[in-house]
Amino acid sequence: MSLWSMNDGSSLSGTHTFTNGSAIVQANASGAYKSEVKIGDVLTTAGGEKVRVKNLTPPRTVATSDVNASNERITITAHGYTANTPLTYSAEGGTAIAGITDGQIVFVKTVHDANTIDVSATEGGSVINITGTGNNSQTFIGETNTGITLTSNFGGSTESGVAATVSRPPIDGHGGTIDSNVFGIDEGESVAGVDNVTDIALTSTTGARYVQAPTITVAGPTARTLATANVSLANDTFTLTNHNLRTGTSLTYNSQGGTNLAQNSGNIADDTELFVIRVDADTIKLASSLSNAQAGTALDMTGGSSNVGNNSQTLTGTTATATATISGGAVSAITVTNVGSDYQSTPAVTVEAPKMTIPTSAVNASTNVITFAGHGLTDGDQITYNQVGGGTLMTNVTNGQTVFVRDKTDDTFKIAATEGGTAINIGTGHNAQTFTIVTGATTATAVASTGLGNDGDTNTTELSHVGWVKKTVGSGGRAGRVHYETLVAASSISGDAADDIALPDS
Question: What is the pTM of this model?
Answer without folding.
Answer: 0.63
